[in-house]
Sequence to fold (1100 residues):
Amino acid sequence: MAILFDIQRFCIHDGPGVRTTLFFKGCPLRCQWCQNPESQNPKPEIAFYQEKCVGCFECLEACPHEAIVSLPDRRIDRGKCDACGLCAEVCTQDALRLVGKDWDAESLVEEIAADRDFFLDSGGGLTLSGGEPLLQGDFLLEFLSLAKSEGIHTNLETCGMAGYEVLSSLTSLLDLVYFDLKLMDSQEHAKYTGASNARILSNFSLLAGEFPAVQARMPVIPGVNDSAENIFQTAAFLRHNNKNSIHLLPYHNLGQSKLTRLDAGAEPFYIRDIPEDYLIRAREAFEKEDVHAIVYE
Amino acid sequence: MPLSTNEKQARSVSPRLSLVKKKDRVTRLKEAVQAATPGICTERALLWTEYFKDKANRTKHVYVQMAEALAHSQNNRSIAIHPGELIVGNYTSRRVGGLMFPELHGLVVMQDLFKFPTRETNPLEISRLNQVRLLSIAPFWATRMLAVKTCDSWLDAFSLVLNQLMGNYYIINEAAGISHIAPDYETLCRLGTDGIKAQASKLQKQSLMDADKWYFYESVKIAAEGLAAFGERYAQLAAEMGENELDEGRAAELKAVAEVCSRVPRKGAKTFREALQCCFFAQIAINNESLDNSVCPGRMDHYLYPYYEKDLKTGLLTREEAKELVGAFSVKMSEIVPVFSKYITRTHGGFFNGQIVNVGGTDKNGEDSTNELTMIFLEVMDELRMRQPNYTARVHKNSPKEYLDKVYGILSKGANSPSIYNDEVIVPVLKQNGVKIGDARNYTPVGCVEPVAQGVSFSSTDAALFNTAIILELALNQGRRLGRFAQIGAKTKPASQMTCIEDVQEAFEIQMFHGINRLLKDLQAIEIANAEHHPTPLSSMLLDGCLENGACSTRGGTRYNFSGIQCVGLVDVGDSLAAIKQAVFEDKKLSMEELVGHLKNNLSDDRWRHYLLNMPKFGNDDPFADIWTAYALDVFKAALDGKTSTRGGKYTVGVYSVTLHEYWGTVVSALPNGRRNGESLSNGMSPSNGQDRKGPTAVLNSMNRIDYSKTDNGVNFNIKFDANTVGSPAGCIAMKSIFSTYFKRGGMQAQINVLDPKVLIEARDNPEAYPHLLVRVSGYSAYFNDLTPAMKEEMIRRTSMGL
Fold:
């Protein structure tokens, strides 16, 4: 079984063609700019959409754990809540939602295969995303084997933070890996993501050595990793691993207001003035270093 | 700053002539039309009345009356040629105007006579004098209008009119005239009115023993002569204006206009320009003859191509000049608006006359027929983006890549036009209805979405619209509206005695047959009234079969005859049946009686409403839900099967709702799918109220579970994308890919709308209207409705910036 917090069909930014993206729940990193904070906790949790709540308190009666509180911005006592989801079931406004659903490999493949016709026509397939899919490596082994036997193209989006053996065990089942390189300086990396990048970089090198279809990606966070120095170092690292391209993902503030829904303690990370040309400048900096940079819309 | 599509296209064209100047003309024409205040033209109504007030005319044969009345009106009303025009002709006395049909629905429309200029939706200018003039003809027509002639008694007529205004169960559009045709402009361009008149004369000589036939040919001769004279009025006007024109360039242009109009429509077209002009004159005249609704030029890129090709070869015309003419023609099509009262607008909103121009498809042998003119039309529709014409595009398995790229390319940039039609489904559907393969391959959509073999079929595609959702309401309450006593439908089993889903189905089927039979009884009375009192000789002479048979199209003279009946609220019924099956008979959460109780209370209990809204819904790739929509369609079709119209044609099934889904949404009670009274019903074939939660591929999978051989009058499937998702090149390719798959698997039609920031703003202000609007940003998952106010602003900002 695996835990996912979303399945999104008709994705066009997560690999070639039309794709179904699976958002796995649980992540070893805590990137401050995380746009899907509901992906971090590996367990189910209840999200509270404050602006939708009409204060009927149907949830109060439904909850067997007395975990419903009536604060203006908070409905769940996280200490008591075990995410059984009964409150979400009775909420008529969809203000309380259970984030995180268990899937077995067979049902998940069946769910994805519904779009096989579209995959075939467009050259698409499925994309593992999250969260960090590699945290659920055993499941992936079973699931990807089934998906491959159905002829579905597979792509893994990873932060690279996992034991290499997990990654290595899956390469024969993957057509493509999108590998994030966020920051080259280890201390900076630890500061912004909660962990050193040593293992990530070593995994990248090992993977690049044995698996040709690995594509580096960088979420470009203005003022954090778009400095000339970081781009120079990233380019050097890529060249060293015989890679000559990188995908640049734009930053946006959309993830931040998800934080309060989960009562996640994290400080909101909000960049007020996003420079208009930061992506273009980042691309130019990479190009200068002979690394082909593709900017996502 | 990225180039706009227009600029890109302008640059891609080789500037053989002074392109900038040429482009300016069409833009100027467009601006003039868009700046004009729409208003009501009274001339047709008054001249029509003048003709019929003459007692000598009232003794003539009805065929002759109609042809003469039209010619009288067309050739005595005011005409104008506007600055810069190359294609000339006026639907009305105004730059942008609407016509009044006192003999049809004009009197009903006149209930708003004094409100037109000031009403909020679609105000129409009309002077005090003209209001009085219209009022003065009302008594004359009160005893002569079609509805009165349909009925035996005044009381019946009154109830018929009332039923058309406030129709809860069905709306019969034929009560206001029929139209909805794709005339044979190919033949008109080839033969000219003189050629058609000669045919009629010859046939008339052989019909001395048959008065009806003889008079029909007589009326065709009059109609043909009237149309020719109408064109010649413009020839004369252009010549006069040319003589007085100080600008030499414009004087030469007017001289050319005069030459064109002195040839067409009388002599038939020799050049591309003459052919376009010929079509437009006929277009005007037909709109003045019958109901000004859905008179469709159809496959212009196909039947005008030989003229284009020849002119290009002889050097008479360049591609740019042809494009300018097409642009000028296209702008002209926006000079007409419908004159509807508030009540009619409720059911037929949108303020458009449904004049379809189609591109793409195949020739009669099934070979791809796209050509350079197809591309020109596509460019024009993208650059103009005007209210009319309603542009459509046909696709088939061998449609060239270049064509498809262009169609999807302009859609991904937010043109919202053309809508797309699949030959692989539609041609066999027409064939199964007895249309010969060559004719079927020459189909064009008509009106909203209805496939019609061009020039050979009188398909009355919008004969009536039927409220299928109210049928379910009746089925749940023994044939009565919920909370009312009047027995409207058949007496069926009370909900308390329904012990399985089959019981519900049985009641639904009985009510459906009962309701359809009632509709057909009323409709057939109106069919006869149209045939007897409002024949259409001009339209008929441009529909193959009428001349040969010596009979008007309203009397079944055309080669093929159909009448389209629309199923409105289909998906609501399907979802409701799915909800009943799941909630009552599988999960046993409540009894039928309790369910009906909640519906009577308009689902005032939020918990039950929420519960029902979460039942399986069509459009989510869930076979459990989808089969019930397919079932409801089967029942509707079965009720019409085997019935024949008084014109000898079958009744065909359409699934589109114009704007009736909104109006009938205010009529129909709460339904088991969780919809409350007052909320809109489903729009055509689209998932109800945005209940599609899994994105476009899931919607397409559900859509592909419907057997479109059953929807022979077409379906409307609206699907919306946000510009962030499909505005990019990769997004456009993905969009093209999923629709090719949908069509390959037997999809019939799609209307693709790519939302601009304005729509996001609207969605922000009216969240209920867009419950499941998807927004896609790389790696980020959300529905627009689920964003916080601040995030919504951010998304609107991003979309506005084209990020």
